[in-house]
Amino acid sequence: MLVQLAMLMPNWMDPEFLLNWLGDWALWGTLAVIFIECGVLFPILPGDSLLFAVGLFIARGTIDVPLWLACVLLTVAAFLGNVSGYYIGRVLGTSLFTNPNARFLKPKYIEQTHEFFERYGPRALVLARFVPIVRTFITIVAGAGKMDPKKFFLWTGIGAIIWAPGITLLGHALGNVEFVHAHLESALILLVLVSLIPMVVEFALAKRRKAAALPAVD
């Protein structure tokens, strides 16, 4: 099943294809992708799986860059992408999201992200890192809502530090496991599914807290 899903992905969504195509520019291309996906209004990019693949390629020696340097640069790219999205939101608000038939800037994305932000507050900036599409638009919503910049920088910085190095280090740790390398496409799709676990857990906890609060309301 995972292999069938992998075959349906366009080449530019396939991290292994993308990194091989970029060649010596693989890390720099990854930095650009992470920056764009984290706040520049283009949500359909292979963020999680690309970070994992970069770690794996570094472990294999295909990307000849020190692991620590890659982690630092990827964290900076993720942080700056979010900062860009925040200021786009402050300047333009949600005025770009008016066409329900738009390919990427759909009003429903902003509505879903706004609900996400309302439910989890500032920590949404950390949780959203692990949710495709939401991680792009959460910064727009934060900017449009005039969230305090210091609070935004703090929470989005925490998210960048957990997300970018965390997934890259996981890829590096598994990079020399032959089974993972031989089934990379399936492993990358599985990673995307696993990355949603924090959100599922948080959603379950939120429902439990809401249910526990009901008697007090009565």
UniProtKB/TrEMBL annotation:
Membrane topology reported for the UniProt record: Multi-pass membrane protein
KW Membrane (keyword) present: yes
TM region positions: 25-58, 65-88, 126-145, 152-174, 186-205
InterPro entries, alphabetized: DedA-like (IPR032818), VTT_dom (IPR032816)
Cellular component annotations (GO), alphabetically ordered: plasma membrane
Location of the protein in the cell: Cell membrane
Residue ranges occupied by any VTT domain in the UniProt entry: 45-172
Domain of life where this protein originates: Bacteria
Keyword list, A-Z: Cell membrane, Membrane, Transmembrane, Transmembrane helix
Family: Belongs to the DedA family.
Name assigned to this protein: Membrane-associated protein
